């Protein structure tokens, strides 16, 4: 069930338990995993009204044989509890509780699948649309739309996120939400909501005769469910930590969007627990789906260890479009919205950042920052807001603004019952400082390169760094790490200068501030016995460093 859990992680974002229908006891194996909307023309046909026996008995108003249930209003009384779905969207929950949501309640049915839009929450920071999906008698427990978007009256496409889904057992259908970091420029906006390309998915697996004790690259043909082959590589990182890298190639590149393949180790029929630090879905050089996983070497070296590749396969596809003309309105949110220009400096020199503006709406607090450099980095890994003495510990991260590499945005969910005015004291708190430094022009020279592992120690920014290098399957591997925990790590290396420069491919996936400064770069088909290796940049950390900046008043 690992690939299924991986899909749930992608869809449910850290939720630990999901109530779901019992499709042949499949789920028993899972441990965790205000204003009426206006439309142009009023449809004449009524959507299915479920009664007892929701799927088997539907009341249909048969007015036409060709156009059934097109954007029909929903007259049946369904009550939805959105709290589980919106667990990490407290601001949206609060707006709905205050009746600040815009009622839609319209349905479209295509090939027996009914998509219903229930409520829109629109303010100056974002647009959220709550929906439900009835897939009829189809047995698949997982679905995925290939596309879900808004299109404004000028034809501009507004992309959004729509991966969060829940099973509503009371109403016997799925619920979900579409969220876009977009708001109407005026009080109202005429848009069209479109969902298309519905996929139904199921879990599949294939046994892999992988030998984790074999240091050579191993390739296995798959040739099923649009998967072509898998390439596996094991590297012993320390006496009892084994890294396994994988790259899955697809017969149909589109399958990469839903397969979520993952290697699962079993010992005597029980899944072997993975160590933290793994990463999935990094694109390979030729479109492969790559992953890095860590295990205790002792768990895999014991006899009776077997391996399976688990993934999701497509069982059905409905190539239809569910389309809804909408008029979105943010006017009732305006009275609770605060906009304030800041112009507050953060950092110095090339890393300089300026906090430009704060926008507080009934659902979200948004900070906008500008950078001297394109795609500028922030000096801290953790950010909090303190509002009237209350610290908001919501998960936070800065994200780039599409179309402007010099802007970034921090979005924080507004907790329920949190009162904010222009006179409310608001502070931005930063913790765990990470500063990036240019790697410079002095190379580390690797000599006598062979299949034998060799190590040398140099100083990088005053910190000791051990370089371990060796050949494997005609590729050069370069590992770097430091015994000093204040050294954040080397992001990437390259060999040579100018036109002769060869850029190393990072094999490990390290996250800023994760406490792991070991990195591995691979140089494919390397020729020679000597290499001058340069560093793009490295980072230095100060876990105890904090920052506190007043934003309001």
UniProtKB/TrEMBL annotation:
Pfam families: DUF4179 (PF13786)
Stored InterPro entries: DUF4179
Annotated DUF4179 domain residues: 59-133
Superkingdom, natural source: Bacteria
Gene3D superfamilies with a match to the protein in the record: bacillus anthracis domain
Protein name in the entry: DUF4179 domain-containing protein
Organism classification: Bacteria, Bacillati, Bacillota, Bacilli, Bacillales
